[in-house]
Amino acid sequence: MRGVAFACGAWLMAGGAGLAGAQPPAASGLARFEQPIPTAATKVVMVPIPASTDGKIRAFWMSETEIPWEVFDVFAYRLDEEQGSPKADGISRPSKPYLPPDRGFGHEGYAAICLTRMNAEEFCRWLSQKSGKVFRLATAEEWEHACRAGVTTKFPFGDDGSVLGEYAWFAENSEATPHPVKSKKPNAWGLYDMLGNVQEWVSSADAKPVTMGGSFRDDPAKVTPGGRAAQEPSWNASDPQIPKSKWWLSDGSFVGFRVVCEQDPPAPVSTPGTPEKKPVVPKPDEKGGGNKDPRPNGE
Asked: In this structure, are residues 209 and 201 in contact, taking their beta carbons and an 8 Å threshold?
């Protein structure tokens, strides 16, 4: 990943100061950490996100940036597996795209794009299995909470849209192309590109594919913490396959994702006279089971 990593205590730098209601990540009680990626020289920096003040959202970690190609490639092209090795992890992997998925915009240091929500979810399952932690997509509520970084204004930096270009790539400054991650200012909690650049997959209550945050092709009205866009047929219109790919969006060069990592679940409340039950920590299926799509990997 490009740019200078911000220390956990340096949240006031690069525009974080003076945001009413913003709290430093240390308030969550969680520590920033770096998640290694098998065979990759880079790591995914995970930033602690405080719980919401109303208690509806627990503290969690969120990746500092959108997942870049140099991380996603390891999963997509099985770079973590030894050549000729019959051992498989049981995780579904993407089919080979018929066009370069980066569309020539840029690769190393750029957000992985043109992928479906299922592709992003399978990456999370893979990373969970490799790490022993629980990685997933953020819920829409968690995503907006992290994007706002403790404020209720229109943007995470206030209501003045004239400075949006300092924090986001959008229609007025992007020249119709995505840009390297971490090339704009972060929000007050140290998250980059939450607005603009590429819109990000989240998990929604109705299970429909939804993205948030707007992208490099959107006007400021769509580049907001609450900005949502449901997947449309046009995102995969030029895919010649029948049925269309479940892994790649042929016309989704503006769609990417970032991941969150869960805390251990809270301990259950025990009553006097009853044996205490140990909390069940969600773990990836040892055989890569779970919600594995039953269709062949190449569809």
From this structure: yes
Measured distance CA(123)–CA(115) in Å, rounded: 11
Backbone angles phi, psi at 216, to 5 degrees: -65, -15
Instruction: Give the C-alpha separation, 22 to 265, whole Å.
Output: 26
d(CA 156, CA 52): 15
Domains of the chain: 32-80+90-266 (3.90.1580.10)
* Helix, coil or strand: residue 102: coil
| Distance from C-alpha of 269 to C-alpha of 276, rounded to nearest angstrom | 8
- How far apart (Å, rounded) are the C-alpha atoms in residues 124 and 10? 28
Residue-wise pLDDT for 112-160, tens only, equals 999 999 999 999 999 999 999 999 999 999 999 999 999 999 999 999 9
Measured CA to CA in angstroms, residue 191 lies from 132, 145, 187, 234 at distances of 24, 12, 6, 29
For residues 190 and 30, is the Cβ–Cβ distance under 8 A?
no
Tell me, what amino acid is at 33? F
**163-199: per-residue pLDDT in tens?**
999 999 999 999 999 999 999 999 999 999 999 999 9
Nearest to 90 by CA among 58, 147, 130, 57: 130
Strand order in the sheet with 199-202: 228-230, 210-212, 199-202, 255-256
- What does DSSP say about strands 255-256 and 228-230: parallel, antiparallel, or unpaired? unpaired
- Going by their DSSP bridges, the two strands 260-261 and 135-136 should be labelled as antiparallel
* 255-267 average pLDDT score: 86
Per-residue burial over 166-176, b = 16 or more CB atoms within 10 Å of its CB, e = otherwise = ebbbbbeebee
| CB-CB contact of 67 with 256 (8 Å) | yes
Residues, the chain: 299
Nearest residue to 292 (alpha-carbon basis) of 79, 93, 88: 93
